[in-house]
Write a structure and sequence with these properties.
By secondary structure, the chain is an alpha+beta fold. The protein has 9 helices and 7 strands. It folds into 2 domains: about 5-55; about 115-260, Phosphorylase Kinase, domain 1, CATH 3.30.200. It has helices at about 5-15, 20-30, 35-50, 60-70, 75, 90-105, 120-135, 145-155, 240-255, and strands at about 140-145, 175-180, 185-195, 195-205, 210-220, 220-230, 230-235. Strands 1-2-3-4-7-6-5 form a 7-stranded antiparallel sheet, sandwiched between helices. This is Putative zinc-finger domain-containing protein.
Length: about 260
């Protein structure tokens, strides 16, 4: 199966609408093609995001009353039939354009969700950065499983040297890195994997000392923040909280001066 063929079937595969043979063919292609697999993961995230209960609002009581108030017989007799107009292609195009705009700007849906205060602004930014990284080719600027390739790539691009470690023995292989922005800072983003899940680890210099880790659950993602070794760290993924805490522990255990070599 070619990428173009798989691309046409990804939504149907996600909704479990394919027959057994087609589903198996798409599954094999996703196993062999990282680009299509990343696109599929993005679709899955969008499907999950758009099903969030917080996106939906209860109709105002005044409007609900209009729906439920019975029409008086006299008024009912005067009701003039309304001619149903067919939707024009322009209307369909407008609706499709709006849907496409939402899908192409994944982090935009975060602005529709209720805010939980300024203290969690960095959590919202981390989620937006994570979702943005899963779109198209935004995930990686440097592709490598070798920490001695990823770490030097940041030289000259940031005014600090990020801590880079391959945690493959612990089940979290390094796959690369990229430049990003968080909390008004230029940050290093290291990309790890946990099976098919992507883990984004953001880091930038800290002016203060160390701070214990804080875990936050937002919209199906776990965000863990801590400060240590002169750096701020924010890690985010849709893996379960236990796996992400295991990742943090593995990274902290390896965060030592030897890593700066």
């Amino acid at each position: 199966m070619m990428c173009d063929d798989a691309g046409l079937l990804l939504h149907a595969y996600l909704d479990d609408e394919l027959d057994a043979a087609s589903s198996a063919a798409v599954a094999r292609h996703l196993h062999d093609c990282s680009a299509c697999k990343a696109r599929y993961e993005t679709y899955a995230i969008m499907q999950k995001a758009l099903s969030e209960p917080a996106l939906y609002r209860r109709a105002p009581d005044a409007l609900r009353a209009q729906w439920t108030t019975p029409v008086a017989p006299a008024a009912a007799s005067k009701v003039t039939p309304i001619t149903v107009r067919r939707r024009t292609p322009v209307a369909f195009a407008a609706a499709a354009g709006f849907a496409a705009a939402v899908l192409l700007s994944v982090p935009a849906w975060l602005h529709w969700l209720p805010s939980r205060g300024a203290d969690n602004a960095i959590v919202a930014q981390a989620i937006a950065g994570h979702l943005r990284s899963l779109q198209g080719e935004h995930l990686l600027d440097v592709v490598s499983t070798d920490q001695h390739t990823v770490k030097p790539w940041f030289e000259g691009k940031l005014d600090f040297s990020p801590r880079v470690k391959d945690l493959a023995p612990e089940g979290f292989p390094l796959v690369g890195g990229r430049l990003d922005a968080l909390d008004g800072h230029s940050v290093a983003a290291l990309i790890y994997k946990r099976r098919l899940h992507v883990i984004n680890l953001f880091q930038w210099p800290a002016e203060n000392g160390s701070a214990t880790q804080v875990a936050t659950q937002e919209h199906g993602y776990t965000v863990i923040r801590w400060t240590g070794d002169g750096m701020h760290y924010v890690v985010i993924s849709d893996v379960n909280e236990g796996d992400l805490k295991q990742f943090v522990l593995a990274f902290q255990n390896e965060a030592n001066p030897l890593m700066a070599r």
